[in-house]
Design a protein that fits this description.
The complex is a heterodimer of chains A (295) and B (259). With 295 residues, chain A is α/β, with parallel strands linked by helices. Chain A has eleven helices and 13 strands. In chain A, 35% of the residues lie in helices and 30% in strands. The chains are: A alpha/beta (295), B mainly alpha (259).
């Protein structure tokens, strides 16, 4: 079953086209990251899914059915900034959210506990720090233990401990079989938390699928020798050679077919070059992302 | 609808600004009428009966209630504006929809306030009218001029629908209140005065004037009899039409616009 299925969604703000015909499916039980730099259309897309924005064209379904208010009641959502009544306490704000979702108030203490706000539950929202506001928004999204969560930049405004807690929480929720749709501009966040990803840039969907396939990060081997020019010639002659990036002291070489460091070392030795530096490295996530977004 | 009303109650339950303004708006109804009634009694005494119109006698009391009380409908309008613009200020209109209300549900939550405040004010007005008629009047209880109270109610629903309209379109409390105050307390009267003089009585069909035409001060009515050129039915239908128009515009915006 698809939790969310988007079909050619387009949206403009005046002359600016925020979404240019985006389509993808979010499978049930996945932690689905929507990754892209600021202004790529992530929040606009989630705004359309939650009916706070109207698409110019295209359609979408929730739970393989019409995307109405009843479907939204089954989804815990944190969109952009925490939106609460400033003059009300955290507890009273959650009572309102529970009433709208049509759920009882007996779950409020549980979610306040998860968010670490039990002691401040009767403080007014306007007295909260940015991190506390964000945690209250996460608590509100968790209210009623929904099967699906939509989280837009959920670690925004949190300190490092809070960020780690939220990421752990998302993994726990995924472990319980819940579907999490998370928009983020943080690459490592998506890689650490998500199993599926859609990459967006300037309103276009560049790629979507399992994280391991979309953000492919093949290894490369960093090597050095006294005569770097000779090493360059020898390594270029390797049958599995793919590409080379040279610096003043080392070469970063990519190979096809999973060539091992031992094989490379042996090849160089057989061709009269003794290596003084040999390390297997992974392509940085940023490099992989920039490769995709440049394409 | 019960869920919507309960949620709205949770929003205002501990909201001090709401209760202060609500208290002022409600208290003004008896307070201002008592002041006018006292003034009327003193005038009668001081002029030794030369000025002998008993403004709060049955059935005149109903026209007084409509005329005097309608001057303070604006406080209820401010309440509606605050309740609407708060949602935009805190972006909770988005959150309400995100959490599972339809856009129409959100609109109904504000229409509820329009109707609740109008009915509440109507009840207070009727109770005040009965009390003042009994205390200051000499006639038996009567309801002959009660239509003025219905016009007051219609005008109240219209003015609160206009407040809803201004709140929804302007979104900022301060600006919305200034525009609302300016139109209801000055701009329309000016247009009506100039329009009536140079064009004709069609200008009495503007939103607030349509209600005012049916709630003249009893004294003025005695001195300048029946100045209105249209029948009460025309004014009543005009008020209903304006309520429908503003209601439709608000609905259309809510249904189609980005929140």
């Amino acid at each position: 079953m698809s939790i969310l299925s988007l079909n050619n969604i387009a949206k403009s703000y005046g002359r600016i086209q925020a979404l240019k015909g985006v389509s993808f499916d979010v499978p049930a039980g996945s932690v689905f990251g929507i990754l892209g730099p600021n202004g790529s259309g992530k929040t606009t897309l989630l705004g359309i899914v939650t009916d706070v924005l109207k698409a110019d064209s295209g359609t979408f379904t929730l739970f393989d059915g019409p995307a109405g208010a009843d479907a939204r009641k089954q989804i815990g959502t944190l969109l952009e900034t925490p939106n609460f009544y400033h003059y009300l306490s955290a507890f009273d704000n959650l009572r309102i959210a529970a009433a709208i979702k049509g759920r009882g108030e007996d779950d409020i203490q549980r979610v306040l506990g998860i968010a670490g706000l039990t002691e401040r539950q009767h403080s007014k929202f306007k007295t909260f720090s940015l991190g506390m506001k964000q945690r209250l928004a996460i608590a509100s999204a968790l209210l009623g233990d929904p099967g699906v969560l939509v989280l837009d930049e959920p670690t925004n405004g949190l300190d490092p401990v809070g960020i780690a807690e939220v990421r752990r929480l998302i993994k726990e929720l995924a472990g319980m079989g819940k579907t999490v749709i998370m928009a983020s501009h943080l690459l490592d966040e998506v890689e650490k938390v998500c199993d599926h990803v859609a990459i967006m840039l300037k309103g276009n969907l560049l790629m979507s699928g399992p994280v391991s396939q979309v953000i492919s990060r093949e290894d490369f081997i960093e090597m050095g020798a006294a005569d770097l020019e000779r090493l360059k010639q020898v390594i270029a002659g390797h049958p599995a050679f793919s590409s080379i990036v040279a610096s003043t002291e080392t070469l970063q070489v990519s190979f096809h077919n999973g060539t091992t460091a031992e094989e490379v070392n042996a090849w160089c030795f057989e061709n009269g070059v003794r290596l003084n530096h040999l390390i297997i490295r992974k392509k940085s996530l940023e490099a992989a992302f920039f490769e995709i977004t440049k394409a | 609808m019960f869920n919507i009303i309960r949620t709205e109650w949770l929003k205002v339950r501990t909201y001090r600004t709401f209760w202060v303004l609500f208290g002022v708006a409600v208290l003004f109804i008896p307070a201002i009428n008592i002041i006018v009634a006292e003034f009327n009694r003193n005038i009668k005494g001081e002029t030794k009966g030369l000025f002998s119109i008993a403004l709060y006698d049955f059935d005149t009391v109903w026209r007084m209630m409509g005329n005097v009380t309608s001057l303070f409908t604006i406080f209820f309008g401010f309440l509606v504006i605050i309740l609407v613009t708060n949602e935009f200020t805190f972006k909770t209109h988005r959150q309400n929809v995100i959490d599972g209300w339809s856009r129409v549900d959100f609109l109904l939550s504000k229409v509820f306030w329009v109707l609740f405040l109008s009915v509440f004010a109507l009840i207070i007005t009727v109770i005040t009218g009965l009390c003042l008629g009994l205390v200051y009047g000499k006639s038996d209880i009567g309801f002959d001029d009660f239509s003025a109270v219905w016009f007051y109610f219609g005008q109240m629903v219209l003015m609160l629908t206009m407040a809803l309209f201004v709140g929804m379109f302007v979104k900022r409390a301060g600006l919305a209140m200034v525009l609302y105050l300016a139109y209801t307390m000055g701009v329309e009267q000016l247009i009506v005065a100039v329009g009536k003089k140079y064009v004709g009585s069609v200008f009495t069909l503007l939103p607030i004037q349509a209600g005012d035409e049916m709630m003249p001060l009893p004294i003025v009515d005695k001195m300048v009899p029946n100045v209105s050129l249209y029948s009460p039915t025309v004014y009543a239908l005009t008020i209903v039409a304006y309520i429908g128009l503003f209601g439709y515009l608000v609905y259309r915006k809510m249904a189609k616009a980005d929140l």
